[in-house]
């Protein structure tokens, strides 16, 4: 059976992360980069420019005057948010012209990824009062390994999807049996290759890992809590598959149940807004 590295190599033959995404990551990690550097890169992609201006002029930001320049849009959104938009745009493009079967829905996977990113950002900002850009990035990318499996080993991946049931083996167990690896390991390796911060790579690697040393406020904790919330709202990869939390994370939610209840009520509206923005 192929290893995670072999699956990634096969996947990359037909799918490359747009150069613009990798270049933006380099700029974010470079203390000497300027607004002009970001504007130069973004301006090379007309579709991304359109998406960027659509977002900054949407009702979400409530600006009085229309923004029609890339530099102004970047200044308003921020560098990390800009990178996240580019990553989301690239991820959405990976779902074009592919067909699943009765056990797998590509639209459901896309919505699950988007929902996890959105919810992760909301949890970071509303519950822990920290900037949510990093949380969004780990959320939107946490299941990138499933896309690699789907497009690199489609037959085995669809078999896993068919066999995945609420009362059966976990998706990790099925992946290990039929693919020899799992989407968490693949996602971790790919995220590191894309120069994603290590703590976010580890969150992607550990998002199905039940451990008592994962604190609620850590990137992995926020990601797992978010997956649990959207699972309760049925934005899962496959309908009816429960999301299990460690006792520590469960206790945290129970202690802050009022805040989480309000947050969960707002999630569907945010997801619908993202769906409209990224419709093709």
Give a description of the structure.
66% of the residues lie in helices and 0% in strands. By secondary structure, it is mostly helical. It has a domain at 4-13 and 98-277: Hypothetical protein af1432 (Orthogonal Bundle), CATH 1.10.3210. Helix 6 (79-93) packs parallel to helix 8 (133-141) and helix 7 (106-127) packs across helix 16 (257-277). It is globular, with a radius of gyration of 18 Å. The mean pLDDT is 87.
Condensed summary:
The protein has 280 residues and is an all-alpha fold.
Features:
single chain; 280 residues; mainly alpha; 16 helices; 66% helix
Topology of helices and strands:
Elements: H1 4-14, H2 19-28, H3 35-42, H4 46-56, H5 70-77, H6 79-93, H7 106-127, H8 133-141, H9 144-152, H10 154-163, H11 171-179, H12 183-193, H13 198-205, H14 219-232, H15 247-255, H16 257-277
Helix pairs in contact: 1-9, 1-12, 2-3, 2-6, 3-5, 4-5, 6-8, 7-8, 7-14, 7-16, 8-13, 8-14, 9-10, 9-12, 10-11, 12-13, 13-14
Q: State the fourth-level CATH superfamily of the domain at 4-13 and 98-277.
A: Hypothetical protein af1432
* CATH classification class of the domain at 4-13 and 98-277: Mainly Alpha
Q: What order do the SSEs take from the amino end to the carboxyl end, as H and E? A: HHHHHHHHHHHHHHHH
**Secondary-structure arrangement, i.e. CATH architecture of the domain at 4-13 and 98-277:** Orthogonal Bundle
Tell me roughly what share of residues is in helical segments. 55-70%
Name the average pLDDT.
87
């Amino acid at each position: 059976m192929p290893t995670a590295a072999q699956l990634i190599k096969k996947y990359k033959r037909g799918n490359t992360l747009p150069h613009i995404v990798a270049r933006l990551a380099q700029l974010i990690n470079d203390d000497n980069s300027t607004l002009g550097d970001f504007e130069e890169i973004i301006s090379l992609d007309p579709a991304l420019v359109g998406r960027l201006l659509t977002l900054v002029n949407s009702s979400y930001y409530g600006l009085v005057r229309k923004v029609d320049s890339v530099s102004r849009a970047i200044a308003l959104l921020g560098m990390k948010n800009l990178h996240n938009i580019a990553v989301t745009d690239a991820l959405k493009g990976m779902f074009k012209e592919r067909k699943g079967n009765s056990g797998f829905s590509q639209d459901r996977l896309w919505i699950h990824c988007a929902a996890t990113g959105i919810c992760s950002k909301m949890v970071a900002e509303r519950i822990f009062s920290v900037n949510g850009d990093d949380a969004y990035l780990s959320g939107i990318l946490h299941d990138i390994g499933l896309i690699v499996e789907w497009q690199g080993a489609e037959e085995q991946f669809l078999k896993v999807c068919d066999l995945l049931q609420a009362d059966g083996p976990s998706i990790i167990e099925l992946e290990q049996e039929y693919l020899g690896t799992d989407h968490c390991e693949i996602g971790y390796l790919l995220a590191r290759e894309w120069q994603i911060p290590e703590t976010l790579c580890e969150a992607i690697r550990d998002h199905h890992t039940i451990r008592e040393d994962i604190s609620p406020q850590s990137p992995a904790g926020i990601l797992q809590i978010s997956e649990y919330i959207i699972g309760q709202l049925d934005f899962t990869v496959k309908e009816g598959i429960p999301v299990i939390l460690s006792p520590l994370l469960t206790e945290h939610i129970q202690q802050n149940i009022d805040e989480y209840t309000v947050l969960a009520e707002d999630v569907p509206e945010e997801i619908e807004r993202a769906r409209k923005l990224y419709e093709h």
